[in-house]
Amino acid sequence: MRKLIIVVSGPSGSGKTTLINGLFRDKFCSQKLVRSVSATTRPQRTGEKEGIHYFFLSEKEFLRLRRVKKILEWTKYLGYYYGTPKEFVEEQFARGKGVILCLDFRGAIRIRNLYPKETVAIFVTPGSLDSLPERMEKRCSKTAPEEIKKRIRLAQRELKNAHEYNYCVVNEDLKKAVHDFKKIIKNEIRKRLKQ
Ligand code: 5GP
Q1: Residue 39 phi/psi, 5° resolution?
Q2: pLDDT tens digit sequence for 117-174
Q3: Nearest-CA residue for atom 12 of ligand 1
Q4: How far apart are the C-alpha atoms of 159 and 125, rounded to whole Å?
Q5: Mutate to test the pocket of ligand 1, among 49, 53, 84, 104 (most ligand atoms within 8 A of CB)
Q6: Can you name the CATH fold of 5-194?
Q7: Total Cβ atoms within 10 A of residue 65
């Protein structure tokens, strides 16, 4: 069975979600790919939906799933757990679909180690780090300024890992970034999944 896993990483506020949403507006991509829904213990933000953006779990439930090996990879980010449900990913492979995952660096490396031949890793970077505070404040209107600062510090660290990825998409001009992102992914689908 041919498999395709696309891992997308990039600092908070780099626009990963917007790019992925743009991808799923494309008929070809939305037929071939499914977006993985992670489990997390972080509180739900306004507008986020259970089972669509994340599965929001208690820490106890998350740790239980991890213990029984139902979490493929996981990370702790700013005090909260995030993880990829194993069953979900395997079901998509069985249906012949590619899976797109939005993970931090640690998760991207773990997935690549698990599926070295099937993984395509894409790093999304903002044009400049100066735009991040404004983007983050817009997105996380109820997020404490302290957490926003921590996310910015983490973003600066994450940028240093960009060279580990197969592709890097610079999101300075959104239209161009969506175009570049789609082009990379369409090529990989054509190369790796049966038509
Ligand atoms: P946010 O709280 O902004 O939704 O996500 C915080 C960070 O966790 C982002 O870098 C996001 O890509 C990462 N993340 C989300 N889900 C997962 C997951 O299942 N595994 C890993 N390793 N990282 C995740």
Answers
A1: -100, 145
A2: 999 999 999 877 676 667 666 665 666 778 778 887 888 788 889 899 999 999 989 9
A3: 103
A4: 7
A5: 104
A6: Rossmann fold (3.40.50)
A7: 19
**CB–CB of 108/124 below 8 Å?**
no
pLDDT tens column, 39-72 = 999 999 999 999 999 999 999 999 999 999 999 9
Give the atom of ligand 1 at the shortest distance from the alpha carbon of 39. 19
Report yes or no: 46 and 142 within 8 Å, Cβ to Cβ: yes
Taken in order 55, 61, 63, 69, is the CA torsion positive or negative? negative
- Determine contact, residues 178/186, Cβ cutoff 8 Å: no
Tokens 């008929």 belong to residue: 27
Q: What is the maximum span of the chain, computed from C-alpha positions, in angstroms?
A: 48
Secondary structure of 55-118 as H, E, C letters: EECCHHHHHHHHHCCCEEEEEEECCEEEEEEHHHHHHHHHCCCEEEEECCHHHHHHHHHHCCCC
For residue 80, which atom of ligand 1 is closest to its CA? Answer: 2
Distance between CA atoms of 56 and 38, rounded to whole angstroms?
9
Find out whether the beta carbon of 14 lies less than 6 Å from any atom of ligand 1. Answer: no
| Domain range list for the chain | 5-194
Tokens representing 110 are 């773990």
CA 103 to centroid of ligand 1, rounded, Å:
5
180 Cβ inside 6 Å of ligand 1 = no
